[in-house]
Amino acid sequence: IKIIDVFMCKLRKKLAGPSNCKDYIETVWGRGYVLREPHANEAKPGMSLASDVSQNLNI
Predict the structure, then answer these.
(1) Per residue in 28-58, pLDDT tens?
(2) Among 23, 25, 14, 13, CA closest to 54
(3) Helix (H) or strand (E) segment spanning residue 54
């Protein structure tokens, strides 16, 4: 199902800008994709992934 790969690529590009090129979407071979939180040393204090991305996307 190649179309899913295309959409995941587009989503990664959209998230890369506001998240300073951090890759939040990880490919799990044979399973699919997983959305992961940034590492503790990369995360802003008091902010979750969703609030960080939505704030930068002006949602």
Answers:
(1) 888 888 887 765 445 455 555 556 555 555 5
(2) 14
(3) helix 49-56
Tell me how far apart the alpha carbons of residues 12 and 20 are, in angstroms, rounded to a whole number.
12
Q: Are 4 and 13 contacting, i.e. CB atoms less than 8 angstroms apart?
A: no
Closest among 10, 54, 4 to 33, alpha carbons compared: 4
Separation in Å, CA 22 to CA 19, 27, 30, 35: 6, 14, 23, 12
Task: Read off the pTM.
Answer: 0.51
In this structure, the number of other CB atoms found within 10 A of the CB of residue 28 comes to 8
Q: How many residues does the chain have?
A: 59
